[in-house]
Design brief:
Elements: H1 4-9, E1 22-26, H2 31-42, E2 46-51, H3 54-66, E3 70-75, H4 81-95, E4 100-103, H5 118-146, E5 149-154, H6 167-187, E6 192-199, H7 212-222, H8 231-242, E7 253-256
Parallel strand pairs: 1-2, 1-4, 2-3, 4-5, 5-6, 6-7
């Protein structure tokens, strides 16, 4: 957290700070959600951490508090409307309002449309897409009462271009991209911004099943920049978009993929 001297030294320029802001981060127990919660707290926000595994979100909250920040873990199921509504209400009751919603929860099943079951399809659409609708639905009225806010959604590059064997995931994430644009248009005059972050392959627990022996040749073929994208790098992009430094950016798609979407490589 920057002190008064540091803030005054930038002569009024917009910095990546979240002083006096309240942020709600879903999927906050690991990966991009965890990294973003830590980054938001370090920038001065009070953070509510949502997830299905209590031990994980409690550990992240303890980490934030040990560093002098404010955090509150809430166990929630992001595809259930009553659970999401209760999550948002708990955020407002704990910290007095809601300014930032970063929606990260997701699953990534493998299979073509003939290979996956109807149940697997429904679960992916519910957790990856329905959850984004629910979060926005219940967060926006509180943001309107605050005079504005920021919604960030995590999609992924498969939401921009499909990949073989990922039918449900690609469909859900493409929906997230266009839902983000719809929210941005519908609530711009309420001073609510909505953008989507599309990471490529990020070194997170979600990708633990991709063994290095398969992963490394894949990245060498499809990712121009060498190395693994880290969750902390995505979190810095999210921090920028959540801050006043991005106050004229809405309805946009931000890709962080090591250059994969630039063309054929």
């Amino acid at each position: 957290m920057s002190g008064p001297g540091l803030r005054s030294s930038v002569s009024g320029s917009k910095t990546m700070q979240l002083i006096n802001k309240v942020a709600l981060v879903t999927g906050a127990g690991s990966g991009i959600g965890r990294a973003s919660a830590l980054a938001f707290a370090q920038a001065g926000a009070a953070v509510v951490l949502a997830g299905r595994t209590w031990e994980k979100i409690h550990a992240v909250a303890a980490e934030i508090e040990a560093a002098g920040g404010q955090a509150h873990p809430v166990q929630a199921h992001v595809a259930d409307g009553s659970s999401v509504r209760a999550l948002v209400e708990a955020t407002v009751q704990r910290f007095g309002g809601l300014d930032i919603l970063f929606q990260n929860a997701g699953i990534s099943p493998v299979g073509t449309v003939t290979e996956i079951s109807e149940e697997e399809w429904d679960e992916c659409i519910a957790i990856d897409l329905r959850s984004v609708f629910l979060g926005a639905k219940y967060a926006i009225p509180h943001m309107q009462r605050r005079g504005g806010g920021v919604i960030l959604n995590t999609a992924g590059t498969f939401g921009l271009r499909a990949c073989r064997g990922k039918a449900a995931y690609a469909a859900a994430k493409a929906g997230v991209v266009n839902l983000t644009r719809a929210i941005a248009l519908d609530y711009a005059r309420d001073n609510i911004r909505c953008n989507v972050v599309c990471p490529g392959y990020v070194d997170t627990p979600l990708n633990d099943g991709f063994a290095p022996a398969e992963r490394d040749p894949f990245l060498q073929q499809y990712q121009p920049l060498p190395g693994l994208i880290q969750a902390e790098e995505v979190a810095q992009l999210a921090l920028y978009l959540a801050s006043d430094a991005a106050n004229m950016i809405t309805g946009q798609t931000f890709v962080i993929d090591g250059g994969q979407q630039a063309g054929i490589f």
